[in-house]
Write a structure and sequence with these properties.
- Helix content is 46%, strand content 21%.
- By secondary structure, the protein is an alpha/beta fold.
- Strands 3, 4, 5, 6, 7, 8, 9, 10 and 11 form a nine-stranded mixed sheet that branches. A two-stranded antiparallel sheet has the order 1-2.
- Helix 1 packs across helix 2, helix 2 crosses helix 3 and helix 5 packs across helix 10.
Length: 308
């Protein structure tokens, strides 16, 4: 049995929106046409795909399975359309970038500016989420560039190092650590409230690994799903946190946060670019990667010149 892709598209729209009327609006066709198309599709596949309820519709077990495949299929279709458009030239098209929260907020805006000035006709779309969510988007062909904070173990993805990020311990200006005459011992965190990111965050994973390596287990932890919110909580004296040094310049200059040096424990992490092996890269993605490499090389050269 070969699936009718037009009918599959109608069913997928209803499954996604949970409503025949919303699906009709999404696809710009009439609601009766949607209803008839879904009925014909159910007859074709030989089973009920949607349960009709007073509150709308929801996929059956078979419908949910088919909807997942439909999502992958239509994502591949969009990727093909984008690639064909991009192959013509870099004067038009789009580039979808997924980045972990810290990277999206503090690191890639510089690259976005350079790219936009070089290729103003390319529409940029940036998705900010935690590492696990970005990996899922890359697997689903929803993005062309994936930049994340933590390592991802998935046989369907490859990880390539693209930047080193320095982590630092921060405290509020009135915290006892702020008055320390020199670097503190990492074990002093055992008596502190450590503010951490949510599960799935690359930052949280790196911090957890660093503490476990030194057998440090803070007395209490507080989970907050935003680096900005974590910094505000630290500044208010709620606890301490380990964050990327790239995220704190403004607050340190204003005296709202203080970086606390740690004895003999530099904490660095590798930032990763995820790719899907075998997937053709659109020229816009290749150009963006080139900007990342060139910017890194220029910064390295300036740093060496400054040390000379």
């Amino acid at each position: 049995m070969s699936l009718n892709l037009h009918l599959l598209r109608l069913f997928a729209a209803v499954a996604k929106t949970g409503s025949f009327s919303r699906a009709a609006d999404l696809l710009h066709i009439s609601q009766p046409a949607i209803s008839k198309g879904v009925r014909d599709f159910e007859l074709q596949v030989g089973c009920r795909l949607l349960d009709r309820t007073p509150k709308g519709v929801r996929p059956t077990r078979e419908g949910a399975a088919l909807a997942r495949h439909a999502e992958t299929l239509f994502a591949a279709e969009r990727a093909a359309e984008d690639e064909l458009q991009a192959l013509r030239n870099l004067d038009s098209g789009s580039l979808r970038i997924g980045a972990s929260t810290t990277i999206a907020t503090y690191m890639i805006p510089e690259y976005l500016g350079i790219f936009h000035r070089a290729f103003p006709g390319i529409d940029l779309h940036v998705v900010s989420a935690n590492t696990s969510d970005i990996a899922a988007l890359m697997l689903g062909h929803e993005i062309e560039i994936a930049l994340v904070e933590g390592p991802v173990e998935d046989e369907n993805l490859t990880s390539t190092a693209w930047r080193t990020d320095v982590m630092g311990l921060i405290a509020g200006p009135d915290h006892r650590f702020a008055a320390a005459p020199g670097p503190i011992d990492l074990r002093q965190l055992n008596d502190e409230i450590l503010i951490v990111r949510e599960p799935g965050s690359g930052t949280r994973e790196v911090v957890a690994q660093a503490l476990a390596a030194h057998r440090v287990e803070p007395q209490r932890t507080l989970e907050i799903g935003s680096t900005e919110a974590i910094k505000q909580a630290v500044a208010a004296g709620v606890g301490v946190a380990m964050v990327s040094m790239a995220t704190i310049d403004d607050q340190v200059r204003l005296g709202k946060l203080k970086v606390i040096p740690i004895k003999g424990v530099p904490i660095e992490r590798t930032l990763w670019q995820l790719k899907s092996p075998g997937r053709l890269e659109v020229p816009a993605a290749v150009a963006f990667e080139g900007i990342i490499r060139e910017t890194k090389a220029a910064k390295t050269s300036r740093a060496r010149a400054a040390r000379a």
